[in-house]
Amino acid sequence: MAATRTLMTRTRPLAIAAAVLLAGFAAAPAGAHHSYAMYDGTIYRVFTGVMVRVIPNAAHFEMHFVPLNDERTALVRDDDGEPLVWVVQMESAAEAFRHGITRDSFPQGTVFSLGVHPRRDGRPAGDRGDSGLFRCPEGSTPMAGLHCDSVDGNTAFGPGEIPEPGPVDAGRR
Q1: Is there a domain that residue 37 lies in?
Q2: In the predicted model, what is the mean pLDDT of the chain?
Q3: Nearest residue to 70 via CA among 121, 167, 141, 123
Q4: What residues are paired with 116 via a beta bridge?
Q5: How far are the Cα atoms of 38, 76, 143, 162 from residue 73, in angstroms, in the given order?
Q6: What does the pLDDT average to over 42-67?
Q7: I want to staple 95 with a disulfide (CB 3.0 to 4.6 A). Which of 2, 23, 57, 91 is the partner?
Q8: Among 73, 137, 147, 141, CA closest to 116
Q9: Among 113, 116, 114, CA closest to 42
Q10: One domain for residues 48 and 105
C-alpha cells in the first residue's frame, strides 16, 4: 500500500503536467484565427461615415457605421430608405486599444474615414486590412469627395493611410 501511495505521489505531478500540456494543444485550434476568405483582399472601398456603434469584442473590434454620400451632405440609404449600416471587422480589441481605438474615442455620431476590404457576397461589411483610420474633429465633415484625413485637426488611429479605392497593389497585401 505504501509503495502504491509513493508511486501515485510521484506520478501525479507528471499526470497533471501532461493534462495541462494536452489541454494547451487542444485549445490552440480554438484560439486560432479564422479565415478572411469572405473578404476581397484585392480591393479597397473607402468610406467616410457616421458611427452607429462600436463593439470591442476580444477577437475583433467592430465598427458599425452609415456611409456619407460623396457630397458629404447625407447618409447613404438602402432601397427601403433606411440608413445603410456597414460593419467593419478590425484588429483585436487589445490591438485596437494600443492604437487608441476605444468605444469612447468613437462615440455615436462621430464622423470618420477608413478603407475596407468588402465582403465577396456583397453584404455591407468588410475588413479594415491595413487601412488608416481617421476621425474628423467634432462637428466637421470633409469636403465633397474627400475624407477625414484631409480635415485640419483630424485624429489618426494607428498606422496607415487612407488607401486609394480599387485594386490593392500586389506588394501591399
Answers
A1: no
A2: 82
A3: 141
A4: 45
A5: 31, 10, 9, 20
A6: 92
A7: 91
A8: 147
A9: 116
A10: yes
Cβ contact 141:67 at 8 Å: no
Buried b or exposed e, range 41-55, using 16+ CB within 10 angstroms: bebbbbbbbbbbebe
- By CB atoms closer than 10 A (0-12, 13-18, 19+), residue 5 is exposed
pLDDT at position 173 over 60 = no
| Residue 19 Cα to chain centre, angstroms | 35
Main-chain dihedrals φ then ψ at residue 130, nearest 5 degrees: -100, 15
Contact indicator for 86, 125 with CB cutoff of 8 Å: yes
How many Cβ atoms from other residues are within 10 Å of residue 142's Cβ? Answer: 19
Residue 28 lies in a domain: yes
Largest CA distance in the chain: 86
What CATH code is carried by the domain that includes residue 102? Answer: 2.40.50
Whole-model pTM above 0.85?
Answer: no
* Domain residue limits at 27: 1-32
